[in-house]
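Researcher: Can you fold this with arginine in place?
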Amino acid sequence: MLSLPSLLSERVQAVAGIDPELRPATRPQFGHYQTNVALRLANAEGTKPRDVAARLVEQIDLGDLCEPLEIAGPGFINLRIRTDVLARVATQVLTEPSSGISAAGQPRTVVIDYSSPNVAKQMHVGHLRSTIIGDCFTRVLRAQGHTVIPQNHIGDWGRQFGMLVEQILEEGIDVAALDLPAAEELYQRANGHLQSSEEFADRARERVVMLQAGDAATRTLWQQLIDVSLAGFNATYKRMNVLLTNADLAGESIYNDDLAVVAADLEDRGIAVVDGGALVVFVEGFTAPAIIRNAAGGFGYTCTDLAAVRHRVGDLHADRMIYVVGAPQAHHFEQVFAVARLAGYLPDGVSAEHVGFGQVLGADGKKFSTREGTAVTLNSLLDAAESEAAPAIALAAIKYADLSSGLQKDYTFDAERMVATTGDTGPYLQYAHARANQILRKAEAEGFAGDAVTVLAEPAEQQVALLLSRFGEVVAAVGETLQPHRLCGYLYELAGALSSFYEQCPVLKSEGEVRSSRLALCEATRKVLATGLDLLGIEAPERM
Ligand code: ARG
């Protein structure tokens, strides 16, 4: 089904011949949408914009959807949707709030790489952002009807396991009895040991070889470290109310057997060359080559990501890949994608996007860290927000702060501001939802209901209905551009329109058809707020 804005657009384009680029009107007196298509056409033809506008207005067939079109200023065309049409659309939203969301066109198979913490380390702020953003993408793209395959690319393989296992053996500790913070302390002790003792460093190196060769005792300890870490990650996911489960795990270790295959493939086909003992790929536009295998014969992060691309395209049949990883890794992904394109692992029809994100800053404007200067753990952030508000509200505050400004921007973690129920915050939207719910409950108790929007006489009512008609477009734009702040901005505007509507139009105190229509409008808005918040991964409690 075409949404109202696309329908309008299509009808204008049928006459104008080019995309009218309809924009929401900047002032109520300009109607609901505006287009500068006449100005652009006149410019190309060398004719007068107002003449072109007059000709278009003559020919455009919108009588069933709009009031007569108007020409404004130098040749803008203003569209005002008929109120009976708005009422119909609002009623449709009421019946099926997600009806406008499903994607036009082919459903795709989308792999989203997100969260991806490292074994024996607690999740830090960067993983928080990745988890929240990736979870939002999963929800939005699934709602649009795409097949989403989350891939939690945890760091469960590599040289660090040599020192970890050696340290465990030396201390004689029972890994299974550790929790994640204790495993992280072990990591730090092992690292210190590695720096200070040559002999320990040698043992750690030999242990890596044993791990790779599949030595049973080594593998058991390695697996225990993973299990302990997963228990910690899963507890955090649960606390964050995200969709990730163990079924989405696709850690680095699963590519272990593929690494040598990738290296040989690249070398055989002349894509990779040996340079200074290492196997590398030179890619145009990059100062340093991509390292496939280092001079010591080890495979690293880049080779693993190439194997992952191969797997995701070849076995999972992804035709869109999204990597939600901090901005500092932008260069890494550019290079991986470039090598993968060269090698044919990433065919033309498959898109690969790295969605980077900015840092979380402390009140001092510097990168958020503990007093000791170490990275802040995710759990301590959740604790900080929960000291200001109930868990569901604290979580809404964090997620919304994370999603509502452009992802690339840094943002300041200010728990007090984030949990406020006024301003552009998650709790404000939850509150708007709860308030609508309260009115509806009251009406219900008094025996009133509204099952269709039929009267839209007041501008404040029309504004709410107009916004409701845009919901599907906004969600589609998020799925396309991967910019959740568009949905946040939309919901914030909708909540604001709802509150102006209450101020200007009595709901419970009105009567007859006006009351039932207003109740229906309230209910449709409540549903869109709840559905929209859910797409952001935010709960909408019934009461607050
Ligand atoms: N474990 C990495 C880190 O914490 C993130 C992995 C991102 N995903 C990937 N395919 N490289 O920095």
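Model: Folded with arginine in place. The CA atoms of residues 26 and 33 lie 8 Å apart.
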